[in-house]
Specification:
The chain is an alpha+beta fold and 92 residues long. It is 24% helix and 21% strand. Helix 1 (31-43) crosses helix 2.
C-alpha cells in the first residue's frame, strides 16, 4: 500500500443508501437524483471538487445526508432546492 495522489481538493459524499427491509433510507428520499444534480452543478463551477455517492452514513432517519471533506461538514435533510446554497458552501 502507498499514498495515492489527491486529484481533488474536496470530496462531497451524498448518501444514496438503499435498504430493502422497509427501514428509512436516503435513496427513498430522492438521494440518487439529488446526487446527480449536485454533481452537475458543482462540476460547472469547480472541477477540483468531487461529488460522489456514498453508502450508509448512519443518518437515514434525518433525510438525505451530505458530507463535505476535508471540512468535516455534515448536513442532514438536504433537498433539491438546497443545491444553490450547497454549491456556494462547497466551493468557498
Amino acid at each position: 500500500m502507498r499514498p495515492a495522489d489527491k486529484p481533488f481538493r474536496k470530496l462531497v459524499l451524498v448518501c444514496t443508501n438503499e435498504r430493502t427491509d422497509g427501514r428509512e433510507c436516503c435513496a427513498q428520499k430522492g438521494a440518487v437524483d439529488l446526487h446527480y444534480k449536485l454533481k452537475m452543478a458543482v462540476a460547472g463551477v469547480d472541477p477540483s471538487i468531487r461529488v460522489s455517492k456514498s453508502g450508509c452514513l448512519d443518518n437515514c432517519s434525518t433525510g438525505i445526508t451530505v458530507v463535505i471533506q476535508p471540512d468535516n461538514v455534515w448536513l442532514a435533510r438536504v433537498q433539491e432546492q438546497d443545491i444553490p446554497e450547497l454549491v456556494a458552501l462547497i466551493t468557498k
